[in-house]
Amino acid sequence: MKRSLLLLASLSLGCGTTAAQHHLLSAPGAPHARPVRTILEGDPVPPSQPVALVQATGRGLNADLPHLIEGLRAEAQHLGCDAVVQVRIARGSSVATATGFAVRWASHPGTAVQSTPAIDAPWAPPPPLPAAPEAAAPTDAPPPWSAH
What we know:
elongated; 2 helices; 5-stranded mixed sheet
C-alpha cells in the first residue's frame, strides 16, 4: 500500500499542466500565428486597445515563468492580439499564475484608441464624496415627536 502511494506521489510531482483562460473586454480578432509581445507590470505600454483579461495557471513542473508566459501568449494569439501587457506573476509552492491584458496595438486600421484598464493611471484617486448636506438652522419649535 505504501509503495503505491509513493508511486502515485512521484507521478504527480513529475507532471505539470498549464491552463489559460480569458474574460473578453471587447470584440476579439481572428486567431493568428504572429509572435505576441509580453510586457510586465510597471513597464511602459504603447497605445493599445484592450481585448481581454487573460490568465495562465501552471501546476507542478509547469509552475514556472516560461510556461506561464507561453500560456498567456497562446491565449492572446487565439484572440487575435499583439501583446499581453501589465503581466503580474504570483507563485506558490506548486502552483503559479500569470495575469495580464491581451491588447491590439492602436496602429491597426479600424482600432479605436482607448486606455488599457489599470495601465494609464492605476494610482488615480477615487472621485470625491458628495458634500454633506447643510445642517438646518435651529428653530424654537419643539420636535414633532414631543408631547405638549
